[in-house]
Design brief:
single chain; 351 residues; mainly alpha; globular; disordered C terminus
């Protein structure tokens, strides 16, 4: 039985698929589309760029591990965090977004301090990812001279540049708001004489402020903060390079696909990956296909093949290692239910 969250995700993905079908169905190229052509196109992939993309993808998990270490206080051990990262992202590939809880759960069980501080680290990691992706995407929209070529000189380039600047300003406001919320959050949520915030919304806000505060423990040192920000930037530049090389692995799709274009693709695919059904994905493939075909004007068959390849590499390249590590640890993917139950129990106790 679908949870309410998965039901909404399913409905949005169905609507997105119908919308994509509407946009693409009017094209003669898509009317002549056959999946057998996708297989033939995939078989012609150049191995060298694909191997480079895979290497960068695996390197990104090492970067995530280093960043998690720095966000922890005291700093944790590298190998348990790396195992937790591999197992956690494998769980997310199998179970969808709810599988993200596996990583803080596993690391909390293997490190000092328990699970709650790791949930705070996870909140901060997601915040850093959102900020870094938004910053790179906004800077590219605002400054890239190639935007005019992408809009086919329809006069939208100026509006897109302004939208990029607006995104950067919005991010600055959001992060300033987070800093302010952390400072005044406890007073904002308020507490009754018994020490419990009044109202369900305030209790949820109080829990979120507490997790945010726990995730900011690693930011008390300015050098550590600088390293965390630098690692976030390197991480998403590596992911962008991986996307660029996956596109360049197709000999005749976009032979001059630039790094700036890869940043735009990365921004769109990151947004699409927020809507993922367990094991089958959906949002990422649809968004990637539309961006490659409608924005970068890649052939339909190549776009469909690349959308599937990018999804598989981004989500499932780590799966063999994660499954092997989980097998050695004696973990079961059914533990997702116990994690959620434990989290709900912890929230009930706090209330």
């Amino acid at each position: 039985m679908l949870s309410r969250r998965n039901l909404w995700v399913t409905l949005i993905l169905i609507a997105g698929t119908l919308l994509a079908w509407h946009f693409l169905g009017h094209s003669i190229e898509w009317r002549n589309f056959h999946w057998s052509q996708v297989w033939r196109t995939t078989r012609r992939l150049r191995p060298a760029p694909l191997l480079l993309a895979l290497g960068l993808t695996y390197f990104s998990y090492v970067l995530r591990t280093w960043r998690w270490q720095l966000l922890m206080s005291p700093t944790g051990d590298f190998w348990p965090i790396l195992r937790g990262t591999c197992i956690g992202f494998t769980g997310m590939a199998i179970m969808g977004r709810p599988g993200e809880l596996i990583r803080p759960y596993y690391i909390g069980r293997r490190q000092r301090g328990g699970i709650s501080p790791q949930l705070g680290v996870w909140v901060m990691e997601r915040t850093l990812d959102m900020g870094t992706v938004g910053l790179l995407f906004g800077l590219t929209l605002a400054l890239s001279p190639g935007i005019e070529n992408l809009t086919r000189k329809d006069g939208y380039a100026t509006a897109i540049h302004r939208a990029g600047l607006g995104l950067i300003v919005l991010l600055a406001i959001v992060f300033a708001g987070l800093a302010l919320l952390r400072r005044i959050g406890p007073r904002l949520v308020g507490a009754r004489p018994g020490g419990k915030p009044a109202g369900k919304l305030r209790r949820l806000l109080a829990q979120w402020v507490q997790e945010l505060d726990a995730g900011l423990i690693g930011f008390h040192s300015l050098p550590r903060l600088a390293w965390v920000v630098l690692l976030s930037l390197i991480l998403w530049l590596a992911i962008t390079l991986s996307l660029q090389w996956m596109v360049l692995a197709y000999p005749n799709m976009l032979p001059h696909f630039s790094f700036a274009q890869a940043i735009l693709l990365m921004g769109f695919t990151s947004a699409g990956s927020l809507l993922q059904l367990p094991a089958v994905g959906g949002g990422m493939q649809i968004v990637t296909l539309l961006v490659l075909n409608r924005i970068f004007h890649a052939p339909a068959v190549d776009s469909a093949s690349a959308a599937l390849l990018i999804w598989l590499v981004s989500f499932y390249a780590i799966a063999p290692f994660g499954l092997a590590m989980a097998g050695r640890e004696g973990l079961s993917w059914g533990m997702g239910k116990s994690i959620e139950a434990e989290k709900q129990h912890s929230e009930t106790v706090k209330q």
